[in-house]
Each structure stands twice: as structure tokens, then as C-alpha cells.
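Standup, Tuesday
Yesterday: got the pipeline producing C-alpha cells again.
Today: sanity-check two examples.
Blockers: none.

Example 1:
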Amino acid sequence: MCGFCGFLLDADGRAASAVATAGGFAAVVGRMNDRIAHRGPDGDGLWADEPAGMALGHRRLAIVELSPLGRQPMESADGRLVIAYNGEIYNFPELRAELEAAGHRFRGQSDTEVLVEACAAWGIGRAVRRLVGIFAFALWDRHERALTLVRDPLGVKPLYWTRQNGALLFGSQPKALRAHPAFTAGLDRDALAAYLRFSYVPAPHSIFEGVRKLEPGRILTVRPGREPEETVYWDVATAACDGLANPLALSDAEATDALEELLSDAVGRQMMADVPLGAFLSGGVDSSAVVALMARRSDRPVRSFTIGFREGGYDEAEAARAVARHLGTDHTELVVEPRHALDTIPNLPEWYDEPFADSSQIPTVLVSQLTRKSVTVALSGDGGDELFAGYNRYLWGDSVWRRMAPLPPGLRRTAAGMIQAVRPGGWDALFGLLPEGRRPRQPGDKLHKLAGVLASPEPDALYRRLVSQWDDPDAVVRGGREPKGLVWDAELARRIPGFVPRMQLLDSATYLPDDILAKVDRASMGVGLEARVPLLDHRVVEFAWRVPLSQKIRDGQGKWLLRQVLYRHVPKELIERPKSGFAVPIDAWLRGPLRDWAEDLLSESALRSEGWFDPATIRACWTEHLSGTRNNQHRLWNVLMFQAWTRHWARSAAAAPLAA
């Protein structure tokens, strides 16, 4: 893993003088590169073709081929192509062998060299379609004077780009773009409204006007005198439709064998490294399956890492410890105290570079810091919920819709009123009478969310309610109009009639790349740690979409098939427990150790002077949370993370000032 950046100046010369005034090509791309130094602490490289207006920068985290032969930017053997690349190509040994058989000779052992030579030999489109890995890269063709930007199929690695003031700017994170003198974009209020709903800015938007995230599975080509052209080489929606149209007809045992073989190959490929390697272990199904398959392939104990909490209902450290003991891993854990959060929160705007408000960012940062002390590469279990229907909302949402769809709208509204008549705390107390193993976490909040969805006119509207923090962000963001993306696409219901598969697809195309993978990328790369995701090998993804729903959800439980693979290696009793996710007790912390920090950011004077939000709405939400009337932690965290982010970057002398 690494970071890269660069720019291409238009032929009209508008940006050339700004670059010259700022010190020239090397100085400008060097400053862009410095902004992402955390992504590559092992070295840097710069390359420029000034007559063509092209410059590339690269920060290196050395994982494979640690010698200078792995340095970037890297030229192809014929000198035509120059690449700056972030990621890992797991099938590069096979590709290398094929290229060598065709007469190519290699200088080093890096996957970067294989990638650039594959593009030179086969063309970019054909080469990219043959890759198994996680990647984002920029490729400059010196003969065609064409720039190509590429992002991996599932969106594991980030890539931003913009065209401003006569320059096309690109990089692994927005902070690199902001270091260029041509960058003048202000904040996008429409994107802010979308962020307020989802807790992240959905692609292709970013928080900055005109700055785009290249979406997963896309190739962007920029040629002189033409508008950028975007093509799709792999698309999760197409994979989903193809898989559902061609389901596997395998027995349970055959399907389990097939999945285990695929996952074992993916895990084995991703254990390739010339540096120390470990894994994140929560004790849940996904991470436990990954660690179990690692342990089977390793001739030494796998290094595993987890964090826990003292607050009841959030701590998974004991479960992780039990799995680690069974698998014989070399296990390290950290118990998170409020002081850890207090120490981490001020740095989140720097780490996340855009407003980002999935509160599990805090434990993700902490476990990344813990892990980096011992290893440079960590495998993660991300993706299992989306692929194998593991989220509670799949079972819950489908069940609720089936029951409520036949009911008259008036009856639904009455039921909602009855639920809302009891405060969330009252429902929590009532469910507290149940045995601990059968007691859901935060039942009051979930029931009040149910009340909010009872009036949904169709299932996709119900899904939107389930994934929304603010249901009407346009009413909260001054001057904002939320862009309507895939989750409003009415055509999707025709292509994928089943509600559960449709929810899986929507999560895979939006929540997974824009929240889960962005969260892990920023947290891990913030400490120079490479995080790999074996479950998101695109071959596993394509297989999962062919697995019938009956082998994903069974007996009221998701991830059935993945569980069968895991139970071959870990006893069932060590895994079976209520799903909690990677959550943190933000609700209690906001009423306790984080209260003063939050009050400063949410003060009426601050909200009014900064001008982004309607102060009355935010203050009412804050007051309600403090009183315990309702748990508004997620809605408030969205606002707090934006407020903290704007203040951080307004103070930063290393970046362009924010403009409204």
C-alpha cells in the first residue's frame, strides 16, 4: 500500500504560471506528495514531463520487493508508460510468468513492475480485467500524452480527481489535491446534506465542489483537448444480476467446500509479504474465518489484534480471546477507556480528510495503531456481511416489510404512535427482563426506528430509513439539496426483485466502499499499515452472488454458508452470540467525558456564525440526547465530526482555506 498524486496541466497554459510561481513542477508535486507522507513512510518519488504538463508523486510503504527496484513512479521497460500505484496485485506471479514466456524481462520482483508491463503488453483495459487485487493507479502514456486513472472493482483503495483552473489534479486523498495552487474549490452544501444522511459523502461526490471520487471498477482516461472519458470494467450490480440469474445448484456440503477453497486461496495469496503480517480479530464470524484460514496456512502462530471496552454490551475482546486461544494465535488486545477516545478524536479530521462519522472509526484507528506496533500488514474480515447477508437489517427489514405491507397505512401510523408513546429508555428497561443471551442491544432505539419506517410506501423507502441518520437533511443544511444516488434508483427493483438481495447490493455499492473501506483505509494508512480484505477478492464476490439466499440466511440467521466454513476450524459455541458490530459507547460518552467538547462544537453561537446548519434543529437534538429522552448519538456524531473537521482545516496552514 502506498499513496500517490499528480497533475496534468491543460494545453492553454492557464495553470502553468501558477505552478511556476509556486516553485515549478517538482516543488508543487513534492508538496502534494508530502501531504500524504503517512501513507508511505518508507520513501518517496517524483517524476515530471514538463513539456507535456505532467507530474507524478508517490509515497512508498514497502511490502513486496523492499529494494530500490520497487520504487515509484516506475517506467515500463520501453519507456512509454509511467505508473504511480497504490495497492497489491495478488496474482502478479502468474501474470509475470506469462509475460516472461512472451519475452519480457524484469529488473526486480515487484508487482508494480508486472502491472506496468502488463499494461504495456496487453493494453490497460485488458490488463486491469485480469488483475486479482486491490489497487488504484495513475498511468501516463508518453506517446499518446494520455493519463489513465483506475480504481479496483470493490473500491478498497481510494482515488480522487478534479479539473480546476486549467489543471487536472488527482491523488489518494483530497489533502494532496488541496496542496496544488490551482485548487480553489469550496465546500459542497449538497454533498454535506448527503453526508448528514449517511455519515459519509457518497461517491462520486466529495465534500469539495467539483472534486470527484473515481467509483469502483472505473477507468478514467484524459486526452489532450478532450473531456475525461469514464468506462466501467467491473460492476457489482452486474455481478449481482449475473449471479442471481445463474445460481449455483450445489448441496450444502458442496457449497461449503467451494467457498472454503476460494477463501483459502484468497487468504493464502494475501499472506504474501516481505514484512511482518497479522490480522484484526473481533471474534465474529468474518474475522475469525480469515484468521482460521491464515492459521491453517502458516507455519508459525498468526499475530492477531483486538480491542475491547469496559462498557457492557460493547466488549468483544473476550470472544476474540477465546477464538485466539483455540487457533493458537499470538494475540494482543487493548481495552479502550474514554481517555483513548479523547486522545483520538482531535486527530480524526486529519486522518479522515473528509467529514466522516461512522463512530467505529475510533476503535478502527486504535486497533490500527496497536497492530502497527508489531506488523506492517493486517488481514481484515470486512465484506462478509454484505456478501453473505449478515447485517441485522436484512432479516429485520425483510421481516418487517412482509408483515406491514398488507396493513392499511392508517393502521401502520397507529402502531407507530403506540411504539413512540414509550420512550426508548422504557423499552430498554422492559427488554432488560430477558435473559442476557436473548437481549438485543439498544432495543428502545430500534423500536423507535421501526416506528419511523412503518409508514414507508415501498421496501426501498424502508431501506433508506434504515440507513439514514437524518431523514430530511435538506431541512438541516442551509442551502443544501441532497443529490439522489443509487438508493433512490427505482429501476433497481426491476433488475433485482428480492428485497434482501437488493439491500445487499445497495450496501455493496455504497456503504461498503464509502464507509467501511474508507474507514479502514484512512485508519490503517494513517499509521503506515496495509489492510487487506480477502473476502472482497472479486472472485469470492462473484461466487457469493451465485449462492442462493437459502444458503446465506437459514433459521433466522445470516451468513449461514460462511459459518459452515468457519465451524470446520472453530467450535460453534465460541462464535454464536448476538451480533454487535464494531461499536463504541458514543451515547454515554457524549453525556460524560465528551460533553464539554461536544457543547463547544454545538453551541448556538458557533452553529449560527459558521452557517452550515439550522441551529434550532441541532440544539433540540442535543438537548434531547442530554436529557436521555432519546439516543441521538448517530445524528449528533455526524454534526460533530463535520464541525470538528471544518475547524481543523480552517486552522491548518498546510492546506488551502475552506470556502463556503
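Example 2:
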Amino acid sequence: MSQATLRLLDKADKEILKLPRAVKGAIYDFQHKFRQDPESPGLRFKQLKGHPRLYSARVNLDYRALLLHAGGSDYILVAVKPRQEVYDNLDKFAYQINPVTGGIEFLDLLTIEETLVQETAVQPAVPAQPEPLFAKFSAETLLELGVAEPLLGLIAKITNEDELLGLASYAPQLTGEVLLALYSGKTPEEVLDQVTTPVAAVEEIDAEDYQAALARPATVVTTEDAALQEVLEQGDFGRWRVFLHPTQRKIVERGNRGPARVSGGPGTGKTIVALHRVKHLVERLGPGEGKDVLLTTFNTNLAADLGHRLMDLAGPEVVKRVDIRNIDKLASEIVSQTPAGGDRQWIDDNRAVNEWQELLDELQERRWDAEFLHAEWSQVILGQGVVTRADYFRARRAGRGRPISREDRAAIWQLVERYVMRLDDKGLWTFRQVAERAARLEIERARAMASYEADQANGVKLQRESGIWHRPRYRHIVVDEAQDLSAAHWRMLRAMVPEGPDDLFIAGDTHQRIYGNQVSLGSLGINIRGRSSKLTLSYRTTHEILGAAVRLLGEEEWDDLDDGRDDLTGYRSVLRGPEPVFASYSTWAAELDGIVEQVKAWDSASIAVCVPTREMVGKVEEWLAKAGILSCTIGTNGPKLRQAPVHVGTMHRFKGLEYQRMIIAGVAEGLVPDHRIAVYEKDDPLRYRRELRQARSLLFVAATRARDSVLITWHGRKSRFLP
């Protein structure tokens, strides 16, 4: 009796997930038995005729596992098929070591051919045969870019996007990415530089050395039982948590001379790259007990989720070296250590705006509105650390919209002084004030440290002053969902880590900015020019959902956090699924009934219902409870009961979360976007556009939380953002 190592090859789950539930359960049992003894008589393990490396083994009476032998005791599960289909189609199975990436690739040519036939069947009749999409690219060009050679014949027949997506769903990942990039209009030279080169092996490739190929990042496999079970149960939904694409790995492991940024649309793996980056940075540190790496984000429940995921990914030895904090909590803890910090009550933006409104009412001031003044004070004055009237006259107001004169600034400064005095009298601090105060404290701390080091270098004998630590607070900082941080947050982070190699790693997407914080990193001392990477392949969202979500963004322009422009060019998915469904109801009660009906119809343990307001959250939970459906609210620290089959929350609460099926309800005009922004349309058109853009971002974030299905509903008049 001999034991074997069994791995699951990426994309093998495509066909496995279509199998009956009982067969999927048998696969999980099979892998245990095979690892213990592949020669066990009950498995009927044997080599397939004409394939020196391909074997079959019995899963149950009717199904066989296809196993690729990598050498020694190493085997790779590449497919599970009906018994007769295996033996009738031996000539349709192909495998190779890709000569560009050095990774192992398995191709089920029969399934790919059948997919292309199905896609062709749904096309309307055309008077003349269209030209194949890739007719102008030679076989040599495609092979140089890393396309799998056994697919060249099928690729030459593709004439439309549906056929291309059908092939890409089952083709090796690099083949799909190359073809999609060429189809989007990139030249072969651009594809070589942007798609192929990042995943190409640096060493010479031996086409017969499968053991070496198995160890390369381009061979995407998993061996863990829990990971295998997740793939079997959830398919592509869980894949991004298990695998790190070679392009992502290069970003994770790249050394940078200063701050670096990775961007990309929802589901492209920015967060998993950030988590792997944290793991990589910690593993490069020498022995120690301190928390030398900071992992931070704006959203509270996302910060909690990052902690859980880092523990799953890296284990306790890595986690103990990482400070995982919500950015405002971090700022609050710094300020609370000062004499004035412990005597204040800290209030959120809603309470802060209310305080502004009360002040304006008392003064009978009607020229400015409370939200405008709060944003001006928070983003411009606090964000840039402005402390004098003269400094405010010179302050940049990038992204603020409404232009203001010198006289306007003088009037606003007077109101700000009155407002701050009001907060002081009440013993209140806004979170934006706390962030600005924390930034100043960290800047002072950094200056003291620099002065101390300079004196030491000059041979001055010194004693450490009480309360000043003469070492950096962190050696590395990793930021997730960077688009939501304010200027004060960035000033604080810049001061917390010395400028130098790998100091800041920033992951974000401005298309998902839902809190209105507009910043220019360069103006805040964070230079990312020349150190930016972009991810374009979505691992979570299907092609159909992705297309609908991008259309929700309209024709708006988006910044890149550094005074430039960003877009979703090349953003794509090779996952397929049903088109999003849109449904109208006459009343909110009728819409709630529709939500309950849909939840009952879906056979899934991963469902979410997303609504625009907190009041609507309560109503959804009430309706579900009446129908006997267990649900839970998503709070500040995430879902209150993770095991509940249905999670309910406002759109803001779903930032960073993923579900197989989503209902986005209440997408009606007046709710999305909120009716209150109408007052700005004439008086402040630039602010009006900014508010519309933020509302689009919020809906875009909600729509891209789903992997398989999205239902968007409304009552009354539908939102202007919907088709």
C-alpha cells in the first residue's frame, strides 16, 4: 500500500459543479481514498490508452476521475466524467506544459467544442459568414503570447464574442486572457508586455518535466481538504480565496523603492493581493514580537473581515506581527493617549452635520448649507492641516466643485472658528478632527525621531524623552479600499512609516468611492508615479453581472487618487451566468413580498438583501421573519450571525463582502440617488455631479458583490441609473 499526493487543477471545477450532488460528495470521498492507496482495488486505477500520463479511477459506479501523473506519487485531478464518456473520447483530451509560463495545462476539447456549438446555436441567422475574430493573428503570434497550441484550430473558428467567452470559460487562464485582450483592441506587443510577460517563466522550460512544472506559480492547484471542499461546494465563488494568479503574485512579491499602488475593478483580487502582500512583508522581517506592519481600511466591518482572512491565509505567527485596524479607530487611539483626548465625546459625520445646521439656524445663515461647510472644513481645512486664515486662502480645493472667492473663504473661516468653539464647549470631536489631530501628532513624532537620530549621528549624548519613541511606529503599511480614506488619514499614515523601500502599499478603486473623500496622494507626500499596477480580470463577478454593473456607472469620469484619470478599460470576466433580473412593484409592501418569494426560490446558503436606508433593513428582516426565514443584519463589525442564510444591510455595509446571490431592493428614484441632492442641481452643479457620481458608485459596489445572480427591484418610479 502506497500513499499519493492529489491536487485539484484550476478550472477542473467547471464540469464538476454541473454534476449531481451525490457525485460531488463521492468526489470528496474519492480523494481521501486515493491519497491513502491509489492501488486499492475498489478505485480501479489505470492508465488510459494513448496517454502516457493520463489515468482514470473510479469515483462511483457511473463516474470516473481523470488524473494527470506529474511524476512520483504526484497526481492532479483534472476532470470527473461519466464512465463511458471517458473511454469514447480519449482523443479529445490534451495536456501540455505551456512553453511560455511553464505551467501544466489540461484541455477537454470535446467540452470546449460543445460550448462553441451551443453559443453559435443562440446566434440569429446572418446572411454571410462573418470573419473569424482572430484571423489577422498568425499561429506563431498566438503561441508566442502563450495560447495553448491544441486550441488553435478552435480559435480560428471563433466569429463572435459569445463564442470567445465560451472558449475562455474552459481554456487555460492565460489563453483566455490573451484572447480577450486581443479582442479588446490591444496589439500583440501590448498583450505580450501587459499579459504574457508578467506570468512568463524566467528559466528554460522542459516540456517533459511535470514535477518542475507542478512547482511553478502558473500551475494553479490546491491540495488542502478544506479548499477542495470549498471549490466543490461553491466553485468559482471560492476560487479567488484559494488561488493567487501569477500576475498578482508578481505584484505581491515585487520590491518597490517607495509607495506602490494596485487598482482594479471589483472582484479582481485587490484585497487578496493586499493580504498576501502583508504576509510577504512579515515573512521578510527578522525575528521580533512587535507589530511592525499595519493593515488598515476605512470601513469598520471590512477591517474585521481582513483580520479573519489574514488568519486563514497566513496563520497566527504572521498575524501577531500585524496591527489590523480601522483607520478611524487607529487615529482615535493615538489621540486618546494625549491629555485632551480622553475628555471628549467623538461624533460621526451625521451628528457633525446636525451641529453645523444648528449653528447656521442660530446665526440665521442661509448662504451656505451644513453639508457643504462640513465637507469644506473636513476635506480642505482639516485634510490639509490648515491652521490659519492665511493658509486657508492658499489651500487647494481639488475635487470640491463649487468655486469660492477670497471673500467667501473669509466668511467660511469665521463660521469654522465658531463651529470649533461650539464643539469645544460641548466637549465634542468629529472623527475628521480626530484624524487631523492624529496626523499632527504623528508628524511631530516623526520630526522628533529624525532630530534624535541626527543628534545621535553627531555624537550627542541623549536620554529618551518621556512619551517619544525613537523608532518608527511601523516598518510597512498596507491600505485596502484606499479610495475611501481622507487627506488627514493619508497625512497620518505618511508620518507613521519612514519614507523608503516598500513603505506604503495601496489597494483601491475610485469607481467604488462611496464616502466622498477626494484626495491627491502626490500633494500629501505619497508619490506612486511609476509604481502603479492594474488588475483587470474579475474572479468573482460573471460577465453578465459585470456588464450590467459597469453600465450603472454611466459616462462619469473617475480620478486615480493622483490628479489623473482612471477607467475600467480591459475589465473583464470569463465566468458565465444568468443576466441580472430587473423587477418593478407598485408598493414597498409588494416589493417586500417579492424579496421573500425570491429568497425562497433560491437554493443557496449565501444570499444577501441590500437596501438604501436603515429603516428598510428593518422591514426586510421583519418580512423574512414572518416567512420563517432566518436572517441577520450586517453591523459595524460585519454580519451579526454569519451562519444565517440571508444577510441584510444598507449599501454601505456591503463594502468588501461577497455573496452568491444578491437582491438589491428599493432602487427607486428619490432613494437612489437620494432626493435631497436635487437642491444642488442649480445652485452648485459641480457638487450635484459629485453626489450623483457617489450614488452611482454605491450602486456599482452593491451590484458587484454577487457571483452568480443579481435581482434589482424597486417600487414606484425606478432609479434614473437603471436601464
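Quick observation on example 2: The radius of gyration is 28 Å. The first strand starts at residue 5 and ends at 9.
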